[in-house]
Design a protein that fits this description.
The protein is built from 7 helices and 7 strands, in the order αββααββββααβαα. The protein is an alpha+beta fold. The strands form 2 sheets. It has a 5-stranded mixed sheet. It has a two-stranded antiparallel ribbon with strand order 1-2. β1 and β2 form a beta hairpin. The chain is globular, with a radius of gyration of 18 Å. The two termini are 24 Å apart.
Amino acid sequence: MSRSVLSERLSRLERAGLVARTDQGPGRAGEYVLTEAGRELEPLFIALGEWSVRWLFGDPSPQQLDPGMLAFRMAEKVDTSRTPDDRTVVELRCRNPSERHWLVVDPSGATACSIDPGYPVDVVVAGDTTELQRWFIGRRTFPDALAGGAITITGPSSIEDKFPRWFGPATPWHDTIAQQAGRRPSLVPEWYGIRTSRASRQSPTM
């Protein structure tokens, strides 16, 4: 969902007593945490989410697509045990809507930037925003997206081949989404393997 919709819904949950906003200090965004009442609802929402994935889940509408939020969620799900030891910068070139964002990844974690952080870019990942989100949430494998030209990746082979494995499951229902799409669960290593020949890849353009 878009950042404005997310903010509005978090505010409603806060007023209802289900989440509380914590102060992270000057210049830092606050963090929302579940209250005791919210934690008691967690099993119910997990079950509801599982049901919705099986029966109602579909692609977001164009109005719901937010490349900035996608970049933020990707940074949030980076597993630094799988990333290079040195700082690595990924440029995301999204289309429909067209935006550029950056992921700055190092052993301490990952940060999503909507403004060029000023570091040399190591790898460029480009594609339609819908297709990037479909891959990230588990509806399509990275190799399939590459083979179909929906996503392109340009950079050193040492990064290209491992990039899809940098991320943990995007949601608690990641494996259910994959299964609904006729896919393997995300925790099976082969699920992420890139088997597409680099010769068939296209260079990303904007």
